[in-house]
């Protein structure tokens, strides 16, 4: 029996602030909005934000939802249609409030990628697969 990844829930102490960023900066439409939970329209895997205190309640007060987070726990990767689109989206995201971490550059693994942070400090990437030069094809 195989399990299927159905959703990713980002945990936050400030759901409304983070949800506004994902909606206004990244462009995700909100389909469910509650005080402690927001869900976004997304093809494929469900994307949501939930308050850490609510998750603590749901898990019998598990310590991991109560203690302060230290370090990067996850990264969301947003694929664009071209390296040019990566650069354009990166500039738009930063101009709307994303924190610039590393501007888009060509990477050794064949992608153009840039890294930015959301208001909670989570670092995410924008990337595109670099086209193969015609003489190599």
Radius of gyration: 17 Å
- Main-sheet strand order equals 1-4-3-2
What is the general shape? globular
Query: How many strands, what sense, and barrel or not for the largest sheet?
Result: 4 strands, mixed
The average pLDDT is 92
**Helix run count:** 3
The tally of beta strands, per DSSP, is 8
Low-pLDDT residue spans = none
The run of helices and strands is EHEEEHEHEEE
- SS-based class: alpha/beta
End-to-end gap: 40 Å
Strand content: 25-35%
Helix content: 10-25%
List keywords for this structure.
four-stranded mixed beta sheet; single chain; globular; 137 residues
Architecture overview:
With 137 residues, this protein is an alpha/beta fold. The chain is built from 3 helices and 8 strands. The strands form 2 sheets. It has a 4-stranded mixed sheet with strand order 1-4-3-2. It has a 4-stranded mixed sheet with strand order 5-8-7-6, covered by helices on one side. The chain is globular and about 50 Å long. The model has no long low-confidence stretch (mean pLDDT 92).
Summarize the structure in short.
With 137 residues, the protein is α/β, with parallel strands linked by helices. It has helices spanning 15-24, 52-58, 83-95, and strands spanning 7-12, 30-33, 37-40, 46-51, 77-79, 99-106, 111-117, 123-129.
């Amino acid at each position: 029996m195989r399990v299927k990844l159905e959703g990713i829930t980002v945990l936050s102490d400030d759901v409304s602030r983070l949800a506004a960023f994902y909606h206004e900066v990244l462009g995700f439409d909100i389909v469910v909005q509650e005080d402690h939970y927001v869900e976004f329209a997304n093809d494929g895997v469900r994307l949501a934000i939930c308050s850490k205190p609510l998750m603590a309640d749901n898990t019998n007060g598990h310590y991991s939802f109560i203690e302060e987070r230290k370090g990067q726990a996850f990264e969301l990767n947003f694929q664009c249609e071209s390296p040019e689109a990566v650069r354009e989206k990166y500039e738009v995201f930063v101009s709307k409030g994303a924190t610039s971490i590393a501007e888009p550059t060509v990477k050794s693994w064949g992608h153009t990628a840039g890294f930015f942070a959301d208001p909670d400090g989570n670092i995410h990437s924008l990337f595109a697969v670099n086209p193969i030069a015609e003489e190599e094809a």
